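Supplementary Note 2. Why include the ligand at all?

Several targets in our set were suspected to adopt different conformations when bound, so apo predictions alone were not considered sufficient. For every target with a known small-molecule partner we therefore ran a joint prediction. The input for adenosine-5'-monophosphate-propyl ester is given below.
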Amino acid sequence: MRETYREFYRRSIEDPNSFWGEQSKLIHWVKPFNTVLDYSRPPFAKWFAGGLTNLCFNAVDRHVPVRGEQKALVWISSEVNQEKSYSYRELQTEVQRAARMMQYLGVKKGDRVIVYMPMVPEAAFVILACARIGAIHSVVFGGFAAANLAARIDDAKPKLMITADGGSRMGKVVPYKNLVDESIKLAQYPPENVVIFRRGLDPNMQLVPGRDFDYAELRDKHLGAKVPSVWLESNEPSYILYTSGTTGKPKGVQRDVGGYAVALAASMKYIYCGNAGETMFTASDIGWVVGHSYIIYGPLIAGMTTIMYEGVPVRPDAGIWWKIVQDHKVTVMFTAPTAIRVLKKQDPAYLKKYDLSSLRYLFLAGEPLDEPTHVWISEALRKPVIDHYWQTETGWAILTCAPGVENTPVKFGSPSFAAYGYNLRLLHEGTGEEVGANEKGVVTVAPPLPPGCMTTVWGQDERFVQTYFTSFKNKMVYTTFDWGIRDQDGYYFILGRTDDVINVAGHRLGTREIEEAVNMHPNIAECAVVGVADQLKGQMPLAFAVAKDASKLGTPEGRKGFEKEVMDTVDKQLGAIARPKAVHFVTLLPKTRSGKTLRRSIQALAEGRDPGDLTTIEDPSSLEQIRKAVTGLNAE
Ligand code: PRX
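The joint prediction is reproduced in token form.
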């Protein structure tokens, strides 16, 4: 009889050594590890210590002898109307060219390479090339602005940056190279060189002599390159991916090599049910963790064809994704709930127009999946739609069902159960004790974290421990910073963040980062940014600001003009994805007597809820100003 998920899960928690030892066989090791888990320095977990492997070898080379002519990567751009495919053999060739190009520019094992690229195949080549030679890639989402990019440059201190002349969004060119130039001017630790992949999107782009190199020219020099994989100890860093937290300073989530490869291989089998020779379509971006794990590494490690899509889900029309499913016989698809909410507003006929018989599952993650959207898409597709919950930090699912183990029924609005390997605990915020069924608690994981999860904060071990493992007194547990609840049947529901992180269309942003950006406007004295519920995007930032000189605010035009200036400042500092929905000007922010801004009360008012306990407020009239400012908003 087949093992139930409950038994499978129990094995993973009670005997992690034998469980993960078994899973380790899903990937290739050139030298076997000494121990499955070295947990001699909690909470730092070293998986497969002593083992030698390589992510790129597992994603590419391993498949060439058996499926060399099978498509590995299919790139479809509805932005520039192009489509290109690469077989595993061709991918291997391109990756080696890119690897040699980096070596030519002096990149060695352990060096950081920042990748700031649109969704083009070359981005996948350079990411895999880094993995091949043991360079540490740090992909930065193309929507981030120059100042943001500069902060990441200074933290990662890259040897090299790789970019493109431009990207395209909704048919509009988005310059990348100019932004990289600007970020390098702002950075204290700029890279020595920049490689630019020219798409012909920005013909006016200028090269800096001696520093900048053209991707195509370098590639031409190394057409026959043979670059063997560098074997890495399982715990050496593979990449850094920056993500937002409570402070204004993004954290560099560091990932290992062997643990990540095993975790992804196992997830392809037990969660996504993605088999070699089949096709996976993850509609996300390489700048996010979902892109790292399930556009690039996961499906390739599994020997699948991966689809890389540049474009939005409604252009040229709302059938484009379903056409891709039909034309490429996609078996598993993965995206964020926002995209589904966007599609829900379109003509449902688009879903009936294409043959979706190849599709087995649609997975959703990145933000809460509301029940009406879950019901709508399940009924429209007539396929299982699986909500699963995870974080940049974990690299793969924390809560999910695992149809590759057992077909458990899905409950709408719930990402099901703890994924195998996660010793999940819902803890009472105050006491740190486990809560019972239907009681709200903080979602935590008793360490060690399973393979694939972050191993530390880049260059800051102390910050890793401080940030993630010290929320509860006398208890070292990993906190996700999410509230959750478990029902009587054992299904979990995520109720939102416990910290100041918000989720805009599946993009994770720190309200502190946005506040810092707003404060960059020379006429802002102080501000508070909160996330407010938004029907389409899940949440949107909303800013309340105090002006230094309020003389401009006397007229509606003056206010509008000032609001626009503040929004432009945010665009420039962080990028348009962080732009507040509105900026309300007040003369005072609600604060406690000790000077702490009452963000929760502001947020409650902005969402038309009760502001809660206000006994500590310094000046109640401040709250009145917020109430007045948002009244118009709630009436919209
Ligand atoms: O608050 C949770 C929310 O997104 C956060 C992680 O975002 P990010 O680091 O960008 O990683 C996304 C990886 C898929 C979480 O702390 N979140 C993610 N998935 C869900 C979710 N909230 C509710 N339901 C989900 N399925």
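Residues 243, 289-290, 365-369, 387-392, 415, 480, 482, 494, 497, 503, 508 surround adenosine-5'-monophosphate-propyl ester (CB under 6 Å). The chain has a mean pLDDT of 95. Comparable summaries for the other entries are listed in the accompanying table.
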